[in-house]
Write a structure and sequence with these properties.
With 311 residues, this protein is mainly beta. It contains one helix and 24 strands. Strand 14 (190-198) and strand 15 (205-206) form a beta hairpin. The longest helix is centred in the first third of the chain and has 6 residues, at 11-16.
Length: 311
Amino acid sequence: MKTKKVLLLPFLIIFTCLLSCKETPKPTQKISSIETPSGTLSFLSNRDGNFEIYTMTADGKNIKNLSNNSATDYGNSWSPDGKQLVFYSDRDGNNDIYIMNADGTDQINISKHPANEYVPSWSPDGHKLVFTSDRDHKSREIYVMNTDGSKVTRLTHDEDYNESPSWSPDRSQIIFTKQLKDPNDPSHASNGEIFIMDSDGQNEKRLTHKKGYDSGAVFSPNGKKIAFYGLSKQDQWDLFLMDANGDNIINLTNDSAEDYSPSWSPDGKWIAFTSGHPKQYDVWIIHLSTNKRFRLTQEPTRNQSPIWRPQ
C-alpha cells in the first residue's frame, strides 16, 4: 500500500513544519554574467501535485521533471560522472532506492527490500551508495551497498535515529547525523549532532556540540570545510560552515527564514540551499566570497533539497 505520510520526509523538514517562522524578505537579484555559476542542479518539488525530482540550470532556467511518477520521489544524489541519479521512492509500496539516467530514463529499483530505505548518497569513486534503512532496527541505521544493490553492509548500531549520510571527497569517511536523547529529559526531546566515521563504520567521532538539531552535513569539494544546517543562538534554522575537524563554526545565512540542505558547487564557490517557510520553500544559492544570495525558483509551492551536478 502506498503512503505519502510526512514520515517519508527528512526528520528536520517534518519537525520544522510545526514551527511558525516568518521569512525575512531577501531581494531577488539578477545574477550578472560575471557572477553566474555554471552547471545544473537537481532539486525536489511538489509543483505537479506530488514530490518529483527536477533539474534546472544554475540560473534557475530550463526546469525539467525527471522522475515523472505519481508516487513520492525523494532524496536525490548524483553519480560522480553526472550521468545518473540515485533517489528513493514509494512507488512499489515502500521506500526503495532507485537509479535513473540524468535525463530521467531507465528508472530501476536496486534495493528491492520490504523495509524502508532513505537518502542515498553516491560515493566519489562511483562504486558504492551510503543510505539509511530500518531493515534491521526499529529506527534508521546507516548502510552501504554496491550500486547494483548487492553486498549491503550495516555501519551503525545505535538505539536511536541516524540520518543524512554523505561521503568525504576521498571516500575514506562518512559524515552523518546521530540522534541523541537525554535520559534525564522526561519530554524525550532529541538532539542531533554531526558525527564522522571511517567508510567501514570504524573510528566514529563527534564533530558538533551545538544546541538543537544539526544535520545535512556535506564536505566542500577540497575536503577542508563542511556545510550543514542547524539552530542558531536565536533558535532560527540557518546554514553553518565549519572546518573538517569541527572547529571554527560560523553562521553563514543568519536570517529568520528556515534554511536547510546545503550543496556545494563543483568549484566550491557557491552553496545551493533550501530557504523559506513550511508552505513555501525555494532553492537559493549563496556566493561564499561575497555572501550575495540569489533565488532560483519562484513556483508557489515547495522547492527544496538542491544538489549540484558534478562537472
